[in-house]
Each structure stands twice: as structure tokens, then as C-alpha cells.
Amino acid sequence: MNLVIQSTHAIPAAHLDHLAKLAQSERTEQTAEHAWRLSGAQPHPGIAPYCLENRLDCGYVPQGRSLGDFGLVVMDMDSTLISIECIDEIADMQGLKPEVAAITESAMRGEIDFAESLRRRVALLEGLDESALQRVYDERLQLNPGAGIMLAKLKERGIRTLLVSGGFLFFTERLKPRLGLDYTHANTLEIVDGKLTGRVLGKILDAQGKADWLVKIRDELELKPGQVIAMGDGANDLKMMAKAGISIAYHAKPVVREQASYALNFVGLDGLVNLLA
To answer: What is the model's pTM?
Structure first.
């Protein structure tokens, strides 16, 4: 196995030396500005806590595995590809952000059924002018760090991208051409006479819906499960992540970190590229 160590800053040599000794590594090699690969690494119970204490991300990757082994990357949108929860910011336009954000957090921790939580949150938006959606997109929506690097590298390798979100089509449909994404799917807010009605049209895209879309696109591309990577941050992403060969918990809730193949707790989305360099 290779042990990949990453950070948002230069990693002190003392940290690398200590980890190399714990892992009984054969060789230490820098693969990116703030990423190193420790070849021939052995598991050691002290590695994960040491990395966490020093704000380092780490992951064991089989030797020879690279980004080129994959054909599809499936991403959650809110708090994964982008830095905000869109519904929380829409609610802020109504002065209801604390109420909506509390429901969002509970759903992401897996305490409330996602579909029920979405209905409750969207109901609070009834009467809001649809222009609030454009304002959130223009004024508040930002990509998470490293998104541009990750997407460019995926495109360079011919790897397809699917953005699947329990959020809203209004945002995914604008991100699709902007970022050159191959596929997107999300929920549709009902709008009548320029106002949000407080309802979602059609079947709500929940955790199972995300998983179903991963399988749908995977099968269309004639890929094997092991050729898919899935990234998410909340409990609503777990079923989708379970369908992928590799799952990445990005700055995620504990329940997601515990079940993912790898956790990126500190670095940006380009950490995916560094893991499989």
C-alpha cells in the first residue's frame, strides 16, 4: 500500500519522518505542493490520530491504483462541490435561515428522513420571490477549494462527472454548463406567478434517488462499480457512496467519515487527485 499524506500547507519534515517510521515506509516522495506518498506503507494505529492532531489528511491507496482506473465521479452539490447549503441561503432571504439550517443539519446527520426534512424546509419558503434564487447563485454560491483543479484533471483523463443533489435544479442546471459537467439531477421547486409555493414538484430526489442515478449513469457508460468514485458530506449521500468503488467523505459529518473509503477533512477537492496521483 501507499500512504498518501496531504495538507493545506507545507508539511514539516518531522511529521513526514515520524509517519514514515510508523508506517515502515520504503520511500517518501512528494507528488504535489502539499502532498506526499509513502510507498510500501504498513498499517499502524498511531497514524490516523497523529494526522488528525496535526491537521493532515491521510489515506492508504493500493500501489498501482490511479485516477485512470475510473470512468465516473459522482458528486453531491451543497457543501461538497459548493461551499453553501443553497436552501439555507434562500431561507436567509426570508429571515428564516436559523430555522431552516437547523433542519438541514439534522437531516445531514441522519436524524430526520431527508424527504420529510426537505418538505418542511421548502414549506417555509412559501411566498418568496423567485428572484431570490438568482441572488443566491450570483452573490453567495462559491465552489469549494480545489474544485477547478479536480474538474480539470477529470476532464483531462476523460472521466465523466455526475452532479446529483437533494437541492435544486435551478442551481445544478446553471453549474452544468459553467463547469462542463456531463450529467446533473436535482429537485424542482414549484413556482407560480413568480413566487415559490412552498412545494417540490415530482418525486423528491432523496438518498435512494441519488444511488439510483449513480447506477443509471454507470450502466449507461458500461462501467463496473469499481470504476466509480462518489463524493459527499451528509447522511443523504451514504447510499450513493455505497454504490461506488471508492467513496470520499468531504469535510463530512461523522457518520459519513466513518463509512467512507477516504475522508478529506482539511484539504480541498483536489485532494481526490492527490490521493490517486
So the answer is: 0.95
